[in-house]
Design goal:
With 194 residues, this protein is of the alpha/beta class. The protein is 37% helix and 23% strand. β6 and β7 form a beta hairpin. α1 crosses α2. It is globular. The N and C termini lie far apart (33 Å). The protein binds S-adenosylmethionine. The site of S-adenosylmethionine has 19 residues, from β2. The site of S-adenosylmethionine (SAM) has 19 residues, from β2.
Length: 194
Amino acid sequence: MIYDKLAKGYDKALAPFEKWFLDKWRAETLSYLPQNAKILEIGAGTGLNFKHYPKCQNAVAGEISVKMLEIARKKTNSINLIQANAEKLPLSDNSFDAAFATLVFCSISKPEKAFAELQRILKAKDKIVLLEHVRPNGLFGYLFDVFNIFTVALFEDYFNRETAKLAEEAGLKILEVKQKAFGIVNLIICEVDK
Ligand SMILES: C[S@@+](CC[C@H](N)C(=O)[O-])C[C@H]1O[C@@H](n2cnc3c(N)ncnc32)[C@H](O)[C@@H]1O
């Protein structure tokens, strides 16, 4: 798992981006989640979203990398952390009210499986909110197709994912896609349709 190797330097590497724009986008993403609900985060990483969680009835943060999880543990007492693969969640059907992920669907190898799992653990009309870097439209998109060859090889990161399209193909209802950074980043708000 590449993130076991990246864990130690992750927060430091992201710090300038957090200051510049990312922390603000994280807050905006989590503002779409319901209050006093059962919330699941997948691919929680080192826990950079924890400070923006709404008041929750139960908050669970899943992460596949043990090393990322170790760092996340130091940032919270109230969120339940579990080591979990988003493609096969160790959670019951219909057991949460909303789910979210930030910068995760670029690194999940089979996104369709993760979307199926989210739909399984959520109920009809529950919200899924995603902040993801994606393949931009137009000529830029082709450049990202080239970048993708290197980012997958180096960081297991898919640089040209069309995440909103994948979510729709997986059966989710897309409520809104907010473009950020000229469409390189999308805030995707969708709803379970089952
Ligand atoms: C770019 S990091 C983002 C971390 C965090 N969400 C953030 O916004 O800083 C991607 C994270 O997704 C996790 N990840 C990748 N594939 C996963 C999977 N199948 N299940 C759960 N987490 C996964 C990685 O271990 C890593 O922590």
